[in-house]
Amino acid sequence: MGMRENVIKILKDSLEMYKLEDDASIKFSPKEKVTYVDYLVSKKSKVEKLIADLDEFFGVNYIPNQKRSPLPKLVGKTTRIKVGEKPPKSIVNFRSYTKSGKLPTEIQEWGSTFIFEMVLRKNKDFSKSKEDILNDEDTYNTLRNKIFYNYQDKLDNWIYTYWKQQQQFLAKYKSPNWDEFMYNNDSFVEFFSKYITDKNTGIYTAVTKTGEKKRIKKYTEWNPADIYAAKNMKGIKEELDIIFRTEKKKVKGAPLSRLNNYLIDLLNKKELVGISLKQIKDNAPAVLELRNTKTTYKDPHIEDKNFKMNDIKFKIDNVHLGSTVSTYIKFGTSFGIDVRSSSSGFENLVFATQISGAAAQGGNAPVAFVNELMREKNANQINFINDHNQYPETALEFVSKTSTYSIKDYLMWFKFVKKYFTNPPTEKKFIEHISDLYRKGKVSGGAPAAQTKLMMLHFFYDTLRFHDKNKEFWLTMLYLGMKVGERYAPHAKIY
User: Fold this and answer.
1) What is the mean pLDDT of the chain?
2) Model confidence over 79-122: pLDDT tens digits?
3) pLDDT tens digits, residue range 399-442?
4) What are the angstrom distances between the C-alpha of 435 and each of 3, 410, 425, 427?
5) For residue 286, is pLDDT > 90?
6) For residue 288, is it within any domain?
7) Are 173 and 181 within 8 A, CB to CB?
8) Same domain for 341 and 474?
9) Residue 176: pLDDT band by 50, 70, 90 thresholds?
10) Residue range(s) defining the domain that contains residue 7
11) Intra-chain end-to-end CA distance of the chain, in Å
């Protein structure tokens, strides 16, 4: 074996000896000229033993005419050492990382933007496998040290996703003419968001008889795109500025139909592509599909199922069981909506669409749109508003009339909804269960779970009363979560 192979063997043996396999790993540069040891920063003292072992066998940072070179210490994010006394010496880079909590969405998306930039504008070739990204020293180090930074332990879980995303995009949109990929302040997401939140512009879906504009309140209610690929970004922004600021009768703000039609035209011409990104499980296939482009206002995967009302099942026993804060609306075995909230704090309900067997959820239905859907035909009879402040936070509030609703209301909802439970408890048992959860308090998660169960009970009471046989109502809610329909912006979804 050569020097490099012997070095790697000693490193692997040392990792095993010091029980570092879960906290340190060995990687290689392109053409395997440099060996990397990525280690959890809290294990630095143990990892320095690897350097001592290399020094014992081969010598480290050898200086001629000196009996023994001083052992290097692991300082900063990267420590570079030379192994061996004579050329060619083996280079080993020790790179530290830190463990973290949940990876923020903005870091995931920033990573995607960076990889697209590398491939489409810097001519990086990541065509063969995810190892192309891992072995590209500049790319991987930028992802690791600049983008993921304090979340470096999460990076390797995203490499496959990044590889698949660029692969799918290249297959349809390879071009040397894309502008620089922007994220955060200069991105199209921020550009649109500023217009939407500006009281003098915004996007409006309709104008009432009194002249009041019905507005989109935030970017995610309209557009699922996380990042954008653009050609002639300056010219597109100038045209969008015209759409937002000038209209007939000098009404400022962009009509939804005009804005979406303009974006559809740009998408068809491959000049502006909004991209919705989802994490992809390792070794799973990936696809790119265009959504909301006039001919694709429906999801073909949903439509192909030709769901009947008998295919739609309400799995809502968690309203009265345990402390679980999820209930489900199932569309056969393929799709679902998870109506849920939090057990760690007092929060509103979320309507999260799910794709069975897929690597990612479909997305959350905008709360405002769900409220609007519920009130399309029975507005005067619907009381549910997705606002947790209307529901009790303590056992005392639950049994007294100190919130919007009372025990009388909860029992009314329960009496109607219980026929959808598999084994419904008595009214007394239900009230006792909710009371017990509230008494556990907020810290234990009991009180937030109790509040969530009351909110879910109210939601299903107000929807099932009028829509238990209405297939279109539930399919529309599913589409709201999938961000498919005329009210949503055109985009390419990679999942």
Assistant:
1) 90
2) 999 998 888 889 999 998 887 788 888 899 999 999 999 999 99
3) 987 789 999 999 999 999 999 999 999 999 999 999 999 999 99
4) 69, 12, 14, 12
5) yes
6) no
7) no
8) yes
9) confident
10) 3-97
11) 44
Residue 185 has pLDDT above 90, yes or no: no
Q: Tell me the C-alpha to C-alpha distance, in Å, between residue 168 and each of 20, 132, 295, 363.
A: 37, 16, 21, 20
Residues forming beta bridges with residue 26, ordered by sequence position: 37
Backbone angles phi, psi at 214, to 5 degrees: -85, 110
Residue 208 above 80 pLDDT?
no
Instruction: Reduce the DSSP state of residue 448 to 3 states and report it.
Output: helix
Same domain as 193, residue 122: yes
Tokens of 241: 């500025």
Q: Which among 412, 414, 408, 407 has a CA at the least distance from the CA of 392? A: 407
Q: What is the pLDDT of residue 446?
A: 95
Q: Kindly state whether residues 241 and 333 are assigned to the same domain.
A: no
Answer whether residue 459 is part of any domain.
yes
Question: What's the rounded Cα separation, in Å, for the pair 307 and 299?
Answer: 13
Beta strand pairing status for 491-494 and 78-83?
A: unpaired
Q: CATH number of the domain at 44, please.
A: 3.30.460
Which of 150, 160, 166 has the alpha carbon at shortest distance from 107?
A: 150
**Tell me, what DSSP letter sits at residue 329?**
E
Distance between CA atoms of 250 and 20, rounded to whole angstroms? Answer: 68
Percent above pLDDT 70 for the chain: 95
* pLDDT at residue 361 is higher than 70: no
pLDDT of residue 42: 82
Q: Is residue 304 included in any domain, yes or no?
A: no
Which of 47, 76, 97 finishes a domain?
Answer: 97
CA 165 distance to own-chain centroid: 14
Check: CB of residue 371 under 8 Å from CB of residue 378. Answer: no
User: Which of 97, 116, 135 finishes a domain?
Assistant: 97
pLDDT tens digits, one per residue of 316-325: 999 999 999 9
CA distances from 404 to 3, 387, 398, 407 (A): 75, 11, 10, 11
Total number of domains in the chain: 3
Note the pLDDT of residue 359: 47
Look up residue 483 and give its two tokens: 């961000």
Q: What band does 309 get if pLDDT is binned at 50, 70 and 90?
A: very high
Same domain, 167 and 258: yes
Sheet of strand 90-97, all strands in order from the earlier edge strand to the far edge: 24-28, 34-40, 90-97, 78-83
Cβ within 8 Å of residue 117, ≥6 positions away: 180, 181
H helical segments located in 246-286: 256-268
Residues 41 and 139 in one domain: no
> Can you tell me which residue has the tokens 């039609």?
261
